[in-house]
Design goal:
Aspartate Aminotransferase, domain 2; single chain; Aspartate Aminotransferase, domain 1; five-stranded mixed β-sheet; about 400 residues; seven-stranded mixed β-sheet; binds pyridoxal-5'-phosphate; 2 domains; alpha/beta
Length: about 400
């Protein structure tokens, strides 16, 4: 199937399996080989096959970048050595004095990068609750150059209306970047809703097997692609070809994995909600979730990420549950085939000051689940014995 034919099919399963997968031109290999090389021989000075030096171009990376563009309904993909390296490249579009409006409930590492690294270079960050888009409008200044949102958010599963924020960004002449890690391209495509850049931690659902660290950006505007490519090659946070191969392979099963994550996620969210010892459960698939209507409009399903607090919401009780699961492994990260349990306050979100965290609803007793694709009944049995 030619890449043109694949582009013209709207069916996700076909796209995900064939995206970026041209047979290797030198041998016909159906899987793009791992081009483990640093440089490429030129037949005369400046005469080459489009590849000069592997920080700038690598065929395995190129296949993945094309695949990323295709599965996010974008024109261009760029991949990076990690999700935070991809975020770092976006902020490097800015200069001192520029302002970024960002969500106040997002990945702890993004918050750390913004406040601990980029603030000292004179870039200003305003953190607001983006689930109410009016907060973004009131934070706008003539220097606002970028709006950064995450939806659903990590770990409170808040939903922001991407199309509404995109309209605000366009009016203000600012770029909108959406961290689409939690939804994955299977559940949500922010470019279709007006975003300028989609960012992914490919470490999570895209890789899908907890065996790689990688990040990606997808965009439509060729000028923006040129600027970001320039940053990618100048700053050098590129992934190796082996890692690109792993993510290419992950993408081929993304749709089947996501279907199961959604199915298991729904069962477990319901189970927790009905449990007499469990307090609030945060999952955007509940009909009474405060932004469920928006989630339903902009997502194709609700995924396997959720968090909850016990009715006894002491840190001791949370620790007891966190240390008692057997199938759910206690670990940072998410999006792999195996289920993980995590304590945001001391693990993934420890870099956010406690009072900031609590103000935004991330209490000490909050427990986050990344529901994997094991048998849902086994996962429920495991939670039952851990909750006790
Ligand atoms: C993990 C994660 C990141 C950072 O990605 P890395 O690949 O770990 O650098 C950014 N955003 C979200 C939502 C994440 O879960």
């Amino acid at each position: 199937m030619s890449q043109q034919d694949i582009l013209s099919t709207k069916k996700i399963a076909t796209r995900f399996i064939h995206a970026g997968a041209e047979p290797d031109p030198s041998t016909g290999a159906i899987m793009t080989p791992i081009y483990q090389t640093s440089t490429y021989v030129q037949s005369a000075p400046g005469v080459h096959k489009g590849f000069e030096y592997a920080r700038s171009q690598n065929p395995t990376r190129l296949a993945l970048e094309n695949a990323m563009a295709m599965i996010e309904n974008g024109k261009f993909g760029l991949v990076f050595g990690s999700g935070v390296a991809a975020t770092d490249a976006v902020i490097k579009l800015l200069k001192p004095g520029d302002q970024v409006i960002a969500a106040n409930d997002m990945y702890g590492g993004t918050y750390r990068l913004f406040t601990k690294i980029f603030e000292k270079f004179g870039i200003r960050f305003s953190f607001v609750d983006t689930t109410h888009t009016a907060n973004i409008e009131s934070a706008l200044t003539p220097n606002t150059k970028l709006i950064w949102i995450e939806t659903p958010t990590n770990p409170l599963m808040n939903i922001t209306d991407i199309a509404a924020v995109s309209a605000i960004a366009k009016k203000a002449g600012a770029l909108l970047c959406v961290d689409n890690t939690f939804a994955s391209p299977y559940l949500q495509n922010p470019l279709d809703l007006g975003a300028d850049i989609v960012m992914h931690s490919s470490t999570k659902y895209l890789g899908g097997h907890s065996d790689v660290i990688q990040g990606a950006l997808v965009m439509n505007d060729p000028a923006l692609r040129e600027q970001l490519y320039f940053i990618q090659k100048s700053c050098g946070a590129v992934p190796g070809p082996m890692d690109c191969f792993l993510v290419l392979r992950g993408i081929k099963t993304l749709h089947v994995r996501m279907k199961q994550h959604c199915e298991n996620g729904a069962k477990i969210a319901q189970y927790l909600r009905n449990h007499p010892k469990v307090g609030k459960v945060f999952w955007c698939g509940f009909e009474d979730h405060h932004n469920h209507d928006i989630a339903k409009r902009q997502m194709r399903g609700f995924g396997g990420m959720m968090s909850f607090v016990m009715k006894d919401d002491s840190i001791e009780n949370a620790n007891r549950v966190l240390s008692s699961t057997k199938l759910f492994s206690l670990a940072e990260s998410l999006g792999g085939v195996e289920s993980l349990i995590n304590h945001p306050a001391s693990m993934t979100h420890a870099s956010i000051p406690r009072e900031e965290r609590i103000k935004n609803g991330l209490v000490d007793g909050l427990i986050r689940l990344s529901v994997g694709i094991e048998d849902a009944d086994d996962l429920i049995d495991d939670l039952a014995q851990a909750i006790g």
